Amino acid sequence: MMRMQVPGYELLSQANTLNYSFSGTGVNIAAALSHFGHSGYLVSALPSNAIGDAAVSYLRKLGVKTEFVQRSGNYIGIYFLENGFGIRTSRVTYTNRQESSFNTAAQSVYPFEEIAKSVDLMHFCGITLSMNDQVRNQMKVLAKLVKENGGLVVFDCNYRPSLWGENGYEKAKRHYEEMLGFADIVMMNEKDAMFVLGMKTGMIDRKEQLIDLIPKVADRFQVSLIAGTHRTIHDHQSHTLQGFMFKNDDFTFSKIVSFPVLDRIGAGDAFTSGILHGEMGDFLPEQTVDFAVTAAVLAHTIVGDTPLSSEAEVIRAMNENIGDIIR
Fold first, then answer.
1. Choice among 26-30, 119-123, 255-259, 286-290 with the minimum mean pLDDT
2. How many CB atoms neighbour CB 14 within 10 A?
3. pLDDT tens-place string over residues 200-233
4. 133-148 and 168-182 are packed helices; what angle lies between their axes, rounded to 10 degrees?
């Protein structure tokens, strides 16, 4: 996707200029993992024009490998970002999603068999699942192939009401259940269980709801690991975050971290990348969830969607408070 950001804190209706970059959950995950020392690939389609050329160049600059990026069509999905301030929240407005090269590309343009045989882990996103039936079918076909070839399937719920539209939960439920059936690792919390999957709980406290529902999701869909976060927003520039991980029938919670916010978008992808890095690196659960939440906190300090911190930088932030200048 192309991110069009209004400078400073102006409204879109006020601004005369926009800053553009390229992002999306897949981009963010692949780039973050590449900064942690893995090989991150993007499976997508980009337009066969100068915008597509710029997007490919940007991906390569982030360290994302583009061998599985196809070139077809004329459009890229775009979103406009207006930064919030005080009681005015930030606002994202999507445009041109359904006409994009990705959403109109036929399954035949992708070498799905080759992809499935060459990856150790494939990340799929609920945002992509919201696009259209053609894309949904492609996701399910690729997830099945990855599973059959011994790769790990990661499904990030990432439900977006504005993309599913009216009666969105009802529309999404079947597709989410199918993707959860393929998944080894799932990124979600109790809200996804209650609203998307329609699960019930008698608990009132949010953490108690989480502890009640997440094991039931893991058991129902035979998921080996479920992870996510709880966020508290104190004001525009001050948030609190706690990560959790459910694995081997046991919860592990991170420290509760308070921090200032420069740019929030993409922080959830940083958390996901931290969980995946910890799992691939055989970290202990406590190390994994603390690493992931620290990676998410660092992402709030970086302008743009994409997490850019190295493993060493995340570990340094885990072990230090406010640091001096690194010389």
1. 255-259
2. 10
3. 999 999 999 999 999 999 999 999 999 999 998 8
4. 20
**Across 122-133, average pLDDT:** 94
Q: Give the mean pLDDT of 76-98.
A: 87
Q: What percent of the chain has pLDDT over 70?
A: 97
Alpha carbon of residue 283 to chain centroid: 21
Report d(CA 307, CA 36) in Å as an integer. 10
Contact indicator for 94, 76 with CB cutoff of 8 Å: no
Per-residue confidence (pLDDT) for residue 84, from 0 to 100: 84
Cα separation, 79 vs 153, whole angstroms: 27
